[in-house]
Amino acid sequence: MTDHDVVVIGAGISGVCAAIKLREAGVDDVLIIEKADTYGGTWRANTYPGCACDVPSGLYSFSFAPNSEWSRLFAGQPEILDYVNRVAHDNGLPARTRFGMEMLGARWDSKANHWRIETNTDEITARFLVTAAGPWNEPRFPDVPGLEDFPGEVFHSARWNHDYDLRGKRVAVLGTGASAVQFVPAIVPDVERLHLFQRTAQWVLPKLDHRVPEVEKALMRRIPFAIKALKSIEYTLMEGLGVAFRRPRPLMRGVQAVGSAYLRAVVRDRELREKLTPKYLLGCRRILFSNNYLQALTKPNVDVHATGVVEVKGNTVIGADGGTAEVDAIILGTGFHILDSPIADLIQGADGATMADHWKGSPEAYLGTVVAGFPNAFSVLGPSLGTGHSSAFAILEAQVEFIVSAIKTARQRDWTSIDVRPEVQGAYVDEVQAALGTTVYNSGGCQSYYLDVNGRNSFNWPWSTGALTRRVSVFDAADFTVTAPEVTPA
Known about the structure:
This protein is of the alpha/beta class and about 500 residues long. It folds into 2 domains: about 1-140 and about 335-485, 3-Layer(bba) Sandwich (FAD/NAD(P)-binding domain), CATH 3.50.50; about 145-215 and about 235-330, 3-Layer(bba) Sandwich (FAD/NAD(P)-binding domain). Helix content is about 30%, strand content about 20%. The chain is built from 14 helices and 20 strands. InterPro entries: FAD-bind_Monooxygenase_sf, FAD/NAD-bd_sf.
């Protein structure tokens, strides 16, 4: 058994950021445990054809590690993975990381005032626990009768089988979210026939992507403020879109008009266009950006089934509308366990109950970072911090600033534990839920992964990215119950 000041679960962008900033603050005894064999998190796991970011590269990077070498305005998966690996190695994290180590459970030991973390190799203890597994960690597999008995090939987009040759195959794709929008155009030229089963139509906007010319890269390298200037422009444009999310009726309809015009221009067939036209206000679900997805659906070897899948019988996929498709392979673009993350079942708080037990299906955390009853524990990219327009890097860096301040303060003042007060967490959750009511996330007229099993929006942040950064980054000890070692009188 080994003991550490801080143990970070996960070596994706959140875990990398947390470890770097903790070490910069003088917290040197930091251990990252990662079940895979390299850094990158979701960018390591998702290797499907066409995988790329839908946030401009200048924003989708660490503020302390600007990159002048992005090849495109919206970087692809291999390039982002290389970037995260490079930042981790440049900051000496390999010496602080144990790959191939998976957390099987963690429980707070009230007597010892530390976390006991069970892994697949041994048990470790930590004064502070930082979970950085991220919401896009565990793929969601649909509960479709007969799917397990399908005689052909089945895989999830986040577990792409690169050894399976799709050329000349009949392929069914289940799901039309952000991943499918990217991989469908990439495989259409190869397959004999593609059957896309679409339970809900998605709004798709054109992606203003382009290759970055060498002259622009040279400018970024030679002029120190050039990267900051570009990032500022991208931030301003994205925040402009964010205003529409918060004021949907007068503003988002204008953005939706762009999506409608794009759909009409690309899909000339009226019947197909009707299938692809959403029946809700743009922004209610995640907005998708693509310059080739709608175009791919017009190809002669593509059939769009505007229905969910109810059963698989042998090689036949059966839709809810009674339609069928004979296929050789099924690719699942069915998303992730976002609001029901399995890690919540593995973490036991001071009362012995798991985080999932406390949440009862509706995740909540003060500032998306700390949960009452779980002392000295922090989550990165936790509940109610997601937006439809900003970068995950901005969110996680604000959280990490909070976490570093909390841990540094506790160490300096020799506190054995800090635990957010339940009434503080409750007031914050009520405030967030009240503000979400008028946003497009809640009022746009759709069902999305933003809503948990109880129908509550436990995913979104209802204000601007600037407001998030200012509020989430500040640690205030008055919000916490603090314990310190007992002092024996002389």
